[in-house]
């Protein structure tokens, strides 16, 4: 023990003021400089779900919410240990393996997103999947961050074998020539993009309605307002349920806490608020696990009532399935 | 559009009552049946930290806390969306790359833990490290789930090139023959295990005291009570700080919310409560990010005051470093 104490003293004396640990290094370890692959598996009964991150977009916080003071927005973000100048909006898609059938709910940004997005395909492959295995792609709505992964800038779709399901109201709105021509200049790009993605397959898409079991285990839920036909889903297997909230919130840290706040992306603000409250109440009353497209990876949790508002409690990461 | 609608109707009709999606599958996707590798990188200034999970131990909730009613314990767990019959206690060690020097804070269960632990080495390697690269192992305290990874059942240590630092009070307690012989029967195994791990290197360990910068960037903090010499750490680089809380709590979901509760593993319950409050208050007043050995992976977050108690707000998973 005396020897050990002397070693400590010598060590401490040597190291004060030095920038490295002397005599410690045998093989200098390189920095990793890249994060772990962004996929996370979880079970919904017999269904194997996989959260796949497509990275994030960074936006100035100012101007993001239409009906709140910036100081109040920052106060809510601070409750979630998040930076308060710029907002990171994460993208998390869901893959469902239902009896060996591979179903995607939305496809991420593809190669047309913000600089910190675009990692979807790498993470999807890291999870052990390949795009040819995808049997079905279900779209929640037609914003670019949900559909651009289906068709790359080159015009090619990675999902050669997949059928496509789209909300009927969403399809009717965005594919209507009158809506396109009457839309404000700022929205014409979004209309054009929907056509870029879907025109090559427009005779093959399968439209679906709200409130139907659109495939076994997946029931669509009307969550209109964010876009005209925006859908959420109840995924169930046996007695297990999971609610895919889609864009019920544009960031859980903000709009779960303050469902009455309106994001610039909600096309019908009042309808979106109504849908948001409906979905959050459903999550509370069902006690179901939920996931959000725009929540920090892996984006799963439960909604609890917290006084007059709500909170998202993340599901503890499980190392086993 | 009429064609699409007919397709939907046909599809729905076909699928009701069937267990798979007819005509969808081109290549049956296998279930993954295993979780993503359990490592997560984050920066503390110039230091690259990596959380490595060693899985978890599952315990009956009953009897885990000495001074609380089971119904109250379950109520707190339900706030964290956790099961309420058995408790999963996660193990998350921290790797610090400080200027190319690879430092471990504790080593996990090795091959002597519970059935759902023991994944540490696989996750460590998946993160791109190998055990020969480890320059230094710093132990927080001498419970088996922190030290057994240092020496496998075979007697071999995977960390051939690593120096070893241990808390001086911890060393004095567990290595003292009088303490060993006077200890109750139920603790003799723990004493024997400490000697199994450290006897082969007992002339080489470097002892350290509380409240010292034991290597550049890592300052030890006295957090006694859980064990006699139990240590936490302040890791700092430039103006960035991160507090490694070690076993300040035995599960964040319980003891951050209720720091006055006493776990069966706290050797001096009153001292442990005092240390717990001190560490939680420090985390609040410093505003520093924290990590806990026994928090759900990746075990990082911030401590906020929540009325008369505390809450751990997990750090949003970042897809970039």
Keywords:
homodimer; Metallo-beta-lactamase, Chain A; 321 residues; 14 strands
Q: Give the biggest sheet of chain A.
A: 7 strands, mixed
Counted beta strands of chain A: 14
Task: Determine the strand fraction of chain A and express it as a percent band.
Answer: 25-35%
Helical residues, percent of chain A: 25-40%
Number of domains of chain A: 1
Q: Largest contact between protein chains? A: A-B, 94 and 95 residues
CATH superfamily of chain A: Ribonuclease Z/Hydroxyacylglutathione hydrolase-like
Q: Which strand order does the major sheet of chain A show? A: 1-2-3-4-5-6-7
Shape of chain A: globular
The stretches of 5 or more residues of chain A where confidence is low (pLDDT under 50) are 1-22
Write down the overall mean pLDDT of chain A: 92
Quaternary structure annotation: homodimer
Helix/strand class of chain A: alpha/beta
Order of helices and strands of chain A: HEEHEEHEHEHHHEEEEEHHEEE
Query: In the CATH hierarchy, what is the architecture of chain A at level 2?
Result: 4-Layer Sandwich
Please report the first level of CATH classification, the CATH class of chain A.
Alpha Beta
The CATH topology annotation of chain A reads as Metallo-beta-lactamase, Chain A
User: What is the C-alpha radius of gyration of chain A, as a whole number of Å?
Assistant: 23 Å
Brief summary of the model shown:
The structure is a homodimer of 321-residue chains. The first copy, chain A, is built from nine helices and 14 strands.
């Amino acid at each position: 023990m005396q020897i050990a104490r002397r070693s400590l003293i010598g060590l401490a004396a040597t190291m004060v003021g030095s920038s490295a640990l002397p005599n410690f290094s045998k093989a200098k370890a390189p920095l990793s400089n890249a994060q772990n692959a962004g996929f996370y598996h979880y079970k919904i009964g017999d269904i194997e779900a996989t959260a796949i991150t497509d990275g994030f977009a960074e936006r100035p916080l100012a101007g993001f919410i239409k009906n709140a003071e910036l100081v109040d927005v920052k106060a809510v973000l601070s409750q979630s240990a998040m930076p308060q100048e710029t907002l990171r909006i994460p993208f998390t898609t869901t893959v469902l393996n239902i009896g060996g059938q591979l179903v995607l709910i939305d496809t991420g940004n593809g190669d047309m997103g913000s600089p910190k997005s675009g990692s979807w395909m790498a993470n999807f492959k890291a999870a052990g999947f390949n795009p040819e295995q995808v049997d079905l792609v279900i779209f929640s709505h037609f914003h670019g961050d949900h559909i651009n992964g289906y068709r790359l800038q080159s015009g090619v779709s990675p999902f050669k074998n997949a059928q496509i399901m789209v909300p009927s109201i969403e399809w009717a709105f965005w594919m209507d020539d009158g809506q396109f021509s009457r839309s404000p200049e700022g929205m014409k790009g979004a209309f054009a993009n929907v056509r870029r993605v879907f025109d090559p397959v427009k005779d093959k898409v399968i439209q679906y309605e709200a409130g139907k079991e659109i495939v076994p285990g997946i029931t669509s839920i009307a969550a209109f307002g964010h876009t005209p036909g925006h859908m959420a889903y109840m995924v169930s297997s046996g007695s297990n349920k999971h609610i895919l909230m889609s864009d019920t919130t544009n960031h859980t840290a903000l709009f779960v806490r303050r469902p009455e706040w309106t994001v610039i992306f909600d096309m019908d603000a009042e309808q979106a608020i109504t849908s948001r409250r409906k979905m959050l109440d459903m999550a509370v009353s069902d006690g179901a696990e939920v996931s959000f497209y725009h929540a920090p990876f892996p984006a799963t949790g439960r909604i609890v009532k917290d006084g007059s508002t709500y909170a998202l409690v993340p599901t503890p990461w499980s190392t086993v399935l």
